Amino acid sequence: MLLDAVLNVGTEGELASTLQHVVDSAADLTDARYGALALAGPAQGRGPERGRSRIAELYSVGLSEDERRRITRLPTGHTGLLGHPGTTLSLGVPVRVNNDVLGHLCLARKRHGPFTEEDLALLRVLASQAGIAIGNARLYGTARQRARWIEGAAAVTTALLTGETAADALTTLAKSARILAGAAAGVVLQPTDEGGMEIVAASALDDPGDIVGTSIAPGSPVLIQLLGGEPVYIDDSATDPRMTTHVRTRFGPSMMLPLQSGGRLIGTLALPRKRGGRPYTAVDRLLATQFASQAALALVLADAQHNRERLAVFEDRDRIARDLHDLVVQRLFATEMMLESTRRRTDEPELSDLLGHAVDELDSTIQEVRTTIFALQQPPADAPTSLRGKVLREAAGAAALLGFQPSVHFTGAVDTLVGDQLHDGLLSALRGALAAAHRRTGVTSIEVEVDATARLADGGDGVRLVVSDDGERDEADDGRGTSVTWEAER
Asked: How far apart are CA 72 and CA 38, in angstroms?
């Protein structure tokens, strides 16, 4: 009968069924009226009660529901069956996993006579089998947990490499980590220019909208540890003196994991649980740390892929600009020269006027195409917002076609004095002047001057743009060099 009981232990599909089977078998084999297997929860209590663990799970036979409710703590070894009244004749043994005592298997009120040494030996065997079942269940749970983290890391990597924006990528990371960790929130922080860290992405079950933008001040103990590449584990965010943010009061156990790649800290992944939530185990911490390492690598790879895609866009724009310059502009210019030559040879005024109009139209078209070429040379993103930066950007774009860098000078506080409403007009005039200089022969240098302190003809304050080159003038003019001036009241 003992052999059958031992063989049957662990054949059930669920741990609860297995442990209940242990209690039933123990009572049947020893002819006991009452039996219970109690598993411990966290230790609580003060004074004499301190160190006694509350019962987290209870499997019993022969006990009423009222009796089960009155059993709240594990036995101390001085009472009967878990403190059950009238059970002075009882028997109990610990349930162990490795060297840890997780609970007790107890019996009471043997129907025929007192418990014997044989009963005790039988109970020890069954308690050992219960420990094995619990240990196997833990291993299986850990394996499943590890598999979920691995699958989650793979899913995050795939999402990051499928073209998401940087903000979406960080939000995806925060949400996936929150779900895998069973956390109340998933938060990604990144270093600030001031030396602190700021929450840049968050996923929370109950987010009032004030998480993103929260900062950790420079010099914080938590920050020092994170910047050193060390994870931070917190038992209670609300009371830990290292936590300084205003959102800490909502959370309890937390992990703050560095996102590092190649020795460089690119951010931090924080996974706080609700106040009073289940603490993170050693396995939780290990799996989350491994996830953070892979996520950091995925973020770096995604950033590199994004840069490659941007580079491909730049190269394609450069190719289009070269084709426009080498093919379209040259052909248009050749056609313009042919029409101009024909106009000069004709003696009919009406035909000469018509050809002159066609030449002017071609000249305007060439200028617009060249302006487009300059625009194609500019990066499609990360454009400067200040007037100074925009002017320098236009000059740098023109250099790709001119073969040299125009010289740019500023007078006065350009970015402060010149309003945004004047930017488009000034930049349009600059592009046109650069395009016109490019079509003239013999141009080897161009001077661009922007004066935010210019005095206009009517005496008002203005901004003046002057673009000068050293190219050859039209045949009707003498000497070299052309200067284009644009000005407006500010």
From this structure: 10
Cα within 13 Å of Cα(307), Cβ side = 6
Q: Cα–Cα distance between 381 and 311 in angstroms, integer?
A: 11
Tokens 């700021």 — which residue?
198
What single-letter amino acid sits at 323? Answer: D
- Phi (first) and psi of residue 312, to 5 degrees: -65, -40
pLDDT of 316 reads: 67
Q: Are 251 and 267 in contact (CB under 8 A)?
A: no
Residue 327 is predicted with a pLDDT of 65
CA 312 to chain CA centroid, nearest Å:
25
Hey, which residues does 489 pair with through a beta bridge? 462
Q: How far from chain centre, in Å, is Cα 175?
A: 9
Tokens of 68: 């089960």
Q: Please write the tens of the pLDDT for every residue from 153-197.
A: 787 777 666 656 666 777 888 888 888 888 888 888 888 877 788
At 443-460, the pLDDT tens digits run 899 999 999 999 998 988
pLDDT beneath 70, residues of the chain: 1-13, 41-53, 73-89, 159-167, 207-210, 302-318, 321-327, 329, 366-384, 400, 474-479
Distance, CA of 11 to CA of 13 (rounded, Å): 6
Tell me which residue of 237, 222, 153, 164 sits closest to 189, measured CA to CA: 222
CB 367 within 8 A of CB 436: yes
